[in-house]
Design goal:
This protein is an alpha+beta fold. 51% of the residues lie in helices and 10% in strands. Bound molecules: octanoyl-coenzyme A (CO8) and flavin-adenine dinucleotide. Flavin-adenine dinucleotide binds at residues 18-22, 26-28, 59-61, 115, 120, 299, 302-303, 305-306, 308-309, 312. Pathway: Lipid metabolism; peroxisomal fatty acid beta-oxidation.
Length: 536
């Protein structure tokens, strides 16, 4: 009924909404949110209130001037009992005048690192009354007399966040395709230095260091697209089960969505930054779009669950799985490898060998965390303090788990799809899978040395494999980014346009600057000249 009331209006843009959960004082710890929604059975309304400054909603995108409604997450009070955080759909502005409604204080939070077009806002309530059916009652309800009906699963309140985290993995694949396209096309156009005196300056794309900076971004875009598709299919399956009341697979989805969101956003931000730096000074131009793209990707490390916090959520699941598995209980498919108690096999420099190696690293790290926590607790430390003292290792275990999931998914999905592809295309995609896998083996060689039987000669061989792959991929690099088929209007970049007219575009953009409107800027007469004449 509520969906019938609100969904059509949202779909045809009669109402423009945002998700107002984060407050000035709390973004991570949701149970600490301060906005209250107190039920008044006499009028069958909820009274929304922001009791403190830190209770003000802060950050929601579009809240400052665009949204006229929002989903507000507030502590629900009824009959004197606080039932915890629940979502409410609330009109905050008049639908004709767009004026904030009485009792609503709303505004813009100010300049940010990027997303300058999203008017992120603040929102405070001063005993603002909304009808009872503002409470989104799919999971929990409040009856007319104020009786609270518990949700069959309290965690469903957090469902929106799982959905967005699942989508973010695919978002990162897209952002990396943009960054790789801009930087690789520019690297094909840019000629610089003279390693061979009697030859023209080479394309910077022929420097192996440039390939090392850029090809992993290209491979990661495909890895995250494929992993994002797998995660979405998992989400749809779990959601279908939830609709029929079965929540058994929700914890696994939550755990894998947390670590994949954290790892893909961190990788995307650092790889987009590498794309920017690989374009030298021109990569620092706003007109290249790379600084804006960095601002967008680095924000994703914070929003929808700060990365460390999410990695610790997955670590919580891995530790629980280890304890469950140790009692012989079955584990979820993504965590089942934790119980592989077989002896560490002879290292193999193959994709399967590396993937198995990352699983060993993750299992070994989880086991180390459990041992450290157990040891601290036995010495009288509280579990919470033992957890905190082990948390650096717990984050590392989560990352290793996430990498094992991405490596295995990327390899399996490309192998499955390859059968339907032309041999040359299949070969190039396999090269990207191979590059991605060997790149991360070399990045985490310390962990592999600790938890697997990899030897020095294996590492030397992997390094050579990696460099051979850079050489093999080089001839197809521009074709691979062209295959993303990103229009110039979408790339919005002087460096990444399809026609490669980089220098003309840089100059065209520069001349659009208002500072080039006249040969002598007014600042000369107002400040420089008086200063030079000692009059300032
Ligand atoms: C293009 C730009 C788009 C930008 C969009 C950005 C929009 C936003 O940022 S919206 C705001 C996003 N905010 C967040 O993500 C907040 C993150 N914080 C949280 O999710 C929670 O506070 C959290 C999980 C860290 C801790 O919550 P808390 O209630 O203390 O949970 P915790 O005690 O750790 O766990 C309780 C149980 O709930 C489970 N759980 C927690 N979250 C979830 C979830 N989302 N789904 C399912 N289960 C969950 C835990 O696994 C745990 O289960 P168990 O007890 O069986 O182990
Ligand atoms: C661009 C952008 C858009 C956003 N859009 C929205 C939106 O539309 N709607 C909305 O509701 N919110 C939005 N947010 C807010 C966002 O969800 C929060 O900023 C995010 O959840 C992090 O919470 P916080 O800012 O309180 O950081 P904090 O949680 O205060 O984090 C600060 C530091 O504390 C650490 N920390 C916190 N808790 C723990 C812990 N338990 N263990 C270890 N370390 C911990 C974190 O790791 C971090 O290093 C947006 C944010 C940004 C940047």
């Amino acid at each position: 009924e509520q969906q019938e009331k609100w969904v059509p209006r949202a779909v045809n843009m009669e109402i423009i909404g945002t998700y107002a959960q984060t407050e000035l004082g709390h973004g991570t710890f949701l149970r600490g949110l301060e906005t209250t929604a107190t039920y008044d059975p006499n009028t069958e309304e909820f009274v929304l209130n922001s009791p403190t400054l830190t209770a003000y909603k802060w950050w929601p995108g579009g809240l400052a001037h665009t949204a006229n409604h929002c989903v507000v997450v507030a502590q629900l009070h009824s009959k004197g009992v606080n039932h915890g955080v629940h979502p409410f759909i609330v009109q905050i502005r008049d639908e004709d005048t767009h004026m904030p409604l009485p009792g609503v204080k709303v505004g813009e939070i100010g300049p940010k690192l990027s997303f300058s077009t999203a008017n992120n806002g603040f929102l405070g309530f001063d005993n603002f009354r909304v009808p009872r059916d503002s409470m989104l009652m799919k999971n929990a309800q409040v009856l007319k007399d104020g009786t609270y009906v518990k949700s069959r699963l309290s965690k469903l309140t957090y469902g929106t966040m799982v959905f967005i985290r699942v989508m973010i993995v695919t978002d990162m694949a897209y952002y990396l395709s943009v960054g790789a396209t801009i930087a690789i096309r520019y690297s094909a156009v840019r000629h610089q230095s003279k390693p061979k005196e009697n030859e023209p300056e080479p394309q910077i794309l022929d420097y192996v260091t440039q390939q090392h900076k850029l090809f992993i971004a290209l491979a990661s875009s495909h890895a995250f697209r494929v992993t994002g598709q797998w995660l979405w299919t998992t989400f749809v399956r779990v959601n279908k089960a939830l609709t029929s009341g079965n929540a058994d697979t929700l914890p696994e989805l939550h755990a894998v969505a947390c670590c994949l969101k954290a790892v893909t956003t961190r990788d995307a931000a650092s790889m987009v930054e590498a794309c920017r730096m690989s374009c030298g000074g021109h990569g620092y131009m706003t007109s290249s779009y790379l600084p804006i793209l960095y601002g967008i990707t680095t924000a994703a490390c914070t929003y929808e669950g700060e990365n460390t916090v999410l990695l610790l959520q997955t670590a919580r699941s891995l530790v629980k799985a280890w304890q469950k598995g140790s009692k012989g209980k079955p584990l979820s498919p993504t965590e089942a490898y934790l119980m592989d108690k077989s002896p560490v096999p002879k290292w193999e420099n193959t994709l399967d060998g590396i993937i198995a190696g990352f699983r060993r690293v993750s299992a070994g790290k989880v086991q180390d965390c459990v041992s450290k926590i157990d040891k601290l607790v036995k010495m009288g430390t509280s579990y919470e303090d033992a957890w905190n003292q082990t948390s650096v290792r717990l984050v590392a275990a989560s990352e290793a788990h996430s990498r094992a999931v991405i490596l295995a998914t990327f390899r399996a999905e490309v192998s499955r799809a390859a059968a339907a592809l032309s041999p040359p295309l299949a070969r190039v995609l396999h090269q990207l899978v191979h590059l991605y896998t060997v790149y991360w083996a070399l990045e985490r060689v310390g962990d592999l040395l600790l938890y697997t039987s990899i030897a020095e000669r294996d590492v030397q061989e992997l390094q050579q494999q990696y460099e051979d792959l850079l050489q093999k991929i080089r001839p197809n690099t521009v074709g691979l980014v062209d295959a993303f088929d990103l229009r110039d209007e979408i790339l919005n970049s002087t460096l990444g346009a399809y026609d490669g007219r980089v220098y003309e575009r840089l100059m065209e953009e520069a001349l659009k600057s208002p500072l080039n409107a006249e040969p002598v800027n007014q600042s000369f007469h107002k400040y420089l000249k008086p200063f030079m004449q000692g009059k300032l």
